[in-house]
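Field reference: sequence -> structure
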Amino acid sequence: MADIARDPGLPRGLSAPGLPGPRRLPLTRRQRWIAAAVLAALLVAVVFLVGLGAGWWQLTGQDKRFIATVLNGLTLGALYFLVASGFTLVFGLMRNVNLAHGSLYLAGAYIGWTAADATGSWFFGVAIGFLAMALAGLALQLLVFRRMEGQDLRQTLVTIGLSIVLADLMLWQWGGQTYQFIPPDWIDGTVRLPMVGMGYSEYRLILFLAAVVIGVGLWLFLNKTKVGTMIRAGVDDRDMLAASGVNVQLVFCVVFAVGAGLAGFAGVVGGTALSIAPGEDTRYLLASLIVVIVGGMGSVTGAAVGAVLIGLAEQLGLVYSPTYGVVYTFLIMVGVLVWRPQGLLGRGG
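Structure field:
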């Protein structure tokens, strides 16, 4: 008997009662390659861990060095993600070119350090760093970006000027010396990794877990909540969203405040894992740009993937080929731009 056509009036993916359901579309070639790569990586990791547990081989000094480098790359990628997640909200979703994002990172770090040093509470420094930069981001949206909607060149030039002014103000206030946070004692130790038989910084592992929690929270917020739906709708068609009675400017102010607050939060946790010094604003702005380009504009998952790739490339290059280590990051970016210009997980144009 000939197949019965699906009722064209039904939504896509549904069929009339009693009729055969729609056929499942086969995976694309790209999806098959990604799935195969993920499965292969999981298989290698499982075999490696089982081999360690069963005593099939013993780790040498070079093996431990490699594992420590990979862990450093993952935790550095977690820090890059914390900075880039705020940047992808502002630049990737709202299409606002904020090249002062690195300055928000450094200013949050300095302000958080001052608060922590005055009170002796690291957690108070984290909270102040986040809140101070959230307020700064709110002011930027209201005073700068609201008046330059859709004017990318003006936004670029103005935020570059702001970053230069902020860098000079921070240099004047805190000087050129290097600062570092002292975390609470209960997270400032070394934990022995199971089966691997080597110690690693407990704080760096907590930083990685915090980045995972924040990333999952952002993804759920943007994809599973009403506010997240309004944000994505406002980016695609803000006039239609405004016509439906939603205060678009209020929604965008919230997004900008959260994005800037995440930069301030990353400044404190990054200043604890590494250090705070003049010039860090440029470094983390450049890292955020590369992460968003590699991962895809407006994609939190893409930012996570891009941050991990950049963090691993930077650390592996620093350890095994320090002369050319910085080149690997740009090779990844160039390769993505050639192969998939919209980013690994970005939407096609």
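Note: Residues 49 and 194 are 9 Å apart (CA to CA).
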